[in-house]
Write a structure and sequence with these properties.
single chain; three-stranded mixed sheet; six-stranded parallel sheet; alpha/beta; Rossmann fold; 9 strands; N-(1-d-carboxylethyl)-l-norvaline Dehydrogenase, domain 2; binds nicotinamide-adenine-dinucleotide
Length: 290
Amino acid sequence: MTTIGFIGLGNMGAPMVKNLLAAGHTVKAYDIVPELLDATQATKAESAAGAVKGAEMVITMLPAGPHVSGVYMESVLDNAEAGALLIDCSTIDVETARAVAAVAAERGLDMLDAPVSGGVGGSEAGTLTFMVGGPDQAFEKGRPILEVMGKTIVHTGGSGNGQVAKICNNMILGATMIAVGEGFVMAENLGLDKQVLFDIVSTSSASCFAITSHCPVPGPVPESAANRDFQAGFTAAMMLKDLKLAQAAAQTAGTATPMGAAAAAMFGLFCGAGNEALDYSGIIKMIRGK
Ligand code: NAD
């Protein structure tokens, strides 16, 4: 059994801690929000440094790059035990992921970036997908712990490559959801029944996850958010965050991503109109002009 320091007990982090405890690991947890700390069954640490001291493994699940950079530079790296493995599961920019891992390596510490997909449901069920960047031996060491929280664990290459995989996936998903929304609205306006369009497209060359799992019109996929007035799910705000990360990465890499840029702009408008909390598939409302 492993002693784990866990920092960030939000929507994703808290259920991950629950699963680690259920598997018999010792978890020392910390969050800046005292109520979240009170709610956990893990051993409560009084600070991030307190969670890290004495831990064989440190896992962080924080909102964005500046939080990760701050927590690692101010608390984790100075207090980690020799030989401790550091795993950041937050979705952050590639540059920060690589920079923090490089400083960790200078201090002789292995670090993995391991962003997830699967949402809060996947976190609760322990069925997350982890996209993991970092050295081979660190990946092998971290894998058994990641398997407690996830079903699919993929080694994507060196440091930062987990974040690359995550933002490429979500850039493709954001752009395809807009394209799917346009298709359904055009069909509506031209008098083609949505179920007929679904039956054709879901078995034809344009079939994709945005249609088969997150279909943005009610009916064809009963569990999609469109059937519950776009109650999230995966919020438009989260999609916008990932699309912005993708745009930043595209700029760094000198990659032209006009579809990704258009998707970021559209989700920016959608969120700016007060729809941040809606499911991202609700972007079809904007396409309808509503
Ligand atoms: P969240 O905001 O619910 O949780 C983040 C937690 O970090 C909060 O409880 C916050 O208090 C804590 N925190 C912030 N700064 C801290 C600090 N300095 N020290 C200690 N704790 C601190 O966010 P979430 O939904 O749990 O998401 C976490 C990460 O996972 C994000 O990067 C997000 O993009 C990614 N993600 C989320 C989902 C999802 O569906 N929620 C899906 C995939 C990936």
